[in-house]
Amino acid sequence: MKEIIKNSKKILVTSHTNCDQDGICSALATKLILEKHFPNKEIVVNIESELQKNISFLKDFSKIKTENLFEKIKEFKPETIIFTDSSSLSRFTSNPSEVKEIIAKEKIKIILIDHHKTENDFKVDFKYNNLRSSCAEETYHLFVKEMKLDIDVKIAEVIMTGMIFDTGVFSYKNEFFRETANVVADLVEMGVNIEKILSFKNIYKKEYLEVFTQLNKNLTLKNNFCYSFITEEFLKNCTLTADEYKHAYQTWIELFLKNIEGCKWGFIVRAEGNNEYFASFRSQEGAQNVRILAQKLGGGGHDYASGATLQAKDIDSVIEKIISFIL
Ligand SMILES: [Mn+2]
User: Fold this and answer.
1) Distance 49 CA to ligand 1 centre (A)
2) From the CA of 22, how far away is ligand 1's center (Å)?
3) Is residue 200 within 8 Å of 193, Cβ to Cβ?
4) Which domains does the chain show, CATH number per domain?
5) What is the mean pLDDT of residues 78-94?
6) Most buried in the list 81, 136, 274, 293, measured by CB within 10 Å?
7) How far is the CA of 239 from the centre of ligand 1 (A)?
8) Ligand 1 centre distance from Cα of residue 254 (Å)
9) From the CA of 137, how far away is ligand 1's center (Å)?
10) What is the pLDDT of residues 271-323, one digit of tens each?
């Protein structure tokens, strides 16, 4: 790894499309650490994706490029490309075959830093993956613990942000929790303020409350589950962008859908336009396998978080159909 870096003047760091905070943070941390220790190298982060704006407070976030990856490689001519947070090439670009070709033709060295279980589907020269709970945490172990490259509080903040987002604020199951906790302790000791990061994570536009109101108003409680819906009419008058709208109803789902007293699971149906509806299901562990339910409706997902797209004449008939599968 050190040899590859030493022998490269130009390094391109990238992460996956539809990029989440951990993808952005692992790429950004990689760039910042290398820049700090190899100041004579030219290092660029380019992610072929829209970027999550709620982490724009991080150092050098505004320097991240979002161009087509293949075009960027042609223009920048890197000797090394570092991929983070995914192991399949088609997740990094809409032109995977062209990217593969130019890598082979220009003999570009490839470094992969990931934490997912999937095997890489493209040739790499160095791979770092210990199945940790976030890719940001992998970058900490690789660069700080193994390569002994020290970091400052700004870089520590980038790493902590990736960790916070990918672990559901340290609530998801984590086989290496003690390791994760040790990294958190290191970063806090360096001066990272967790409360500050959370204040950016939990920021809502005023209009989100209208989505909440719609879902609160339409909430129906049954024996042990609940459901709600967002009508076509509401969607038509909604001024939020598609991303904001999604963030709004997802926030409501996270806060309430399986957490209403007496209701351990539930679903919401939302109109998507053109007689299309989407149903999201959530359940507390052990209450209801909502994957099976979603599969019956032509969808899928996990045992306790799933979804399905349905065609129907109106929202009432969608809800009726779902309830007929439950009872
Ligand atoms: Mn990740």
Assistant:
1) 15
2) 5
3) no
4) 2-201 (3.90.1640.10), 208-326 (3.10.310.30)
5) 96
6) 136
7) 31
8) 19
9) 9
10) 988 899 999 999 998 999 999 999 999 988 888 889 999 999 999 999 999 99
Task: Give strand pairing partners of 220.
Answer: 227
Give distance in angstroms: CA of 61 to centre of ligand 1.
18
Residues with CB under 5 A from ligand 1 (ion): 22, 85, 135, 166
Residue entry with tokens 């789902």: 253
Contact 67, 89 (CB under 8 A): no
CA of 193 to the centre of ligand 1 (A): 21
Rounded to the nearest whole angstrom, what is the distance from the C-alpha of residue 322 to the centroid of ligand 1? 33
Average pLDDT value over all residues in the chain:
94
DSSP letters for 71-114: HHHHHH--SEEEEES---GGGT-S-HHHHHHHHHHTT-EEEEE-
Structure confidence by residue, pLDDT tens digits, 169-228? 998 889 999 999 999 999 999 999 999 999 998 888 899 999 999 999 999 999 899 999
Give CA–CA dist 285/319, Å, rounded.
23
Ligand 1 centre distance from Cα of residue 134 (Å): 5
